[in-house]
Amino acid sequence: MLTIVFFALSGLDVLDALDVVDKPSLIEWIYSLQVLPTDDKSNLSRCGFRGSSHIGVPYNSSKGPGAPHTYDSGHVAMTYTGLACLVILGDDLSRVCREACLAGLRALQLEDGSFYAVPEGSENDMRFVYCAACICFMLDDWSGMDRQRAIDYIRRSTSYDSGIGQGAGLESHGGSTFCAVASLCMMGNLQEVFSERELKRIRRWCILRQQNGFHGRPNKPVDTCYSFWVGATLELLDVFQYTNFEKNRSYILSTQDRLVGGFAKWPDSHPDPLHTYFGICGLSLMGEAELQKVHPALNISVRAFESLRRLHEAWRQKST
Ligand SMILES: [Zn+2]
């Protein structure tokens, strides 16, 4: 599935070890997961990337057209991670049907500004707002969403304690706070949406999440992945340097499995791809030697981020 491939690929990239993968065949595989517009374009609102080949649509890694299938549609997290994987692999995104991806994305946004994951409807919350922001940012085109509505949704999700929840009235959470702050950073208007006083309170809420590592909510146990979610939020808010790196680092390292090498959420528990990736990212944020720097908002290596910016520059020159 694409999200797990993203954890693996981006993790290898941050470890500066991407040479172990067969880039051309992975790029072909990712493109084969693109839900392409059909000849009559009747499926535009269903376009994006699917997570795997499970429903058996014909293999097609070219630019189209797609084959009609009643149950075929993109998933916002797969479109986000699919595009991110292509960027990490150094692809120029020339086979991405940008218009179709953006049309598919627009179809997922609700009245309240949040996003569904799939066109049939699903949970709708801050996670998918973040995925949508990443897609628009990577495609360098914000016509994929009503930005003002998304901003209103983020504002309404700010809780009484100044952390940000998955939606209005929900408990503040380190993951949704990251999704909200990173989305606003990618939109380029964090400072306009929150006043300096509000930003200070968000910083305070985040900084209080450090125990030795970080937890996602008050009174919860620390968990490796929050070293990234909360750490990256603090980095975006320019105060990560005031946290205790030594304690954070030794917590993350205490969750590494000595036999298979991956990271788990807690010491002495099973490692998994998500926590392995975010453990690496958490270490990278602190400038761990021999790790590539990770971009705190888009959550890919700074090197991949720079190549994306060069791509955007080339697109802009082409269109003028
Ligand atoms: Zn976790």
Task: Name the ligand types.
Answer: zinc ion
Kindly provide the radius of gyration, computed on alpha-carbon positions and rounded to a whole number of angstroms. Answer: 19 Å
Please state the structural category.
mainly alpha
Helix fraction? 40-55%
Indicate the low-confidence ranges by residue numbers. Answer: none
User: Rough shape?
Assistant: globular
Reading the helices and strands in chain order gives: HHEEHHEEHHHHHHHHH
Task: Tell me about the largest β-sheet.
Answer: 2 strands, antiparallel
CA(first)-CA(last) distance = 38 Å
Cofactor: Zn(2+); Mg(2+)
GO molecular function: CAAX-protein geranylgeranyltransferase activity; metal ion binding
Family: Belongs to the protein prenyltransferase subunit beta family.
Subunit structure: Heterodimer of FNTA and PGGT1B. PGGT1B mediates interaction with substrate peptides.
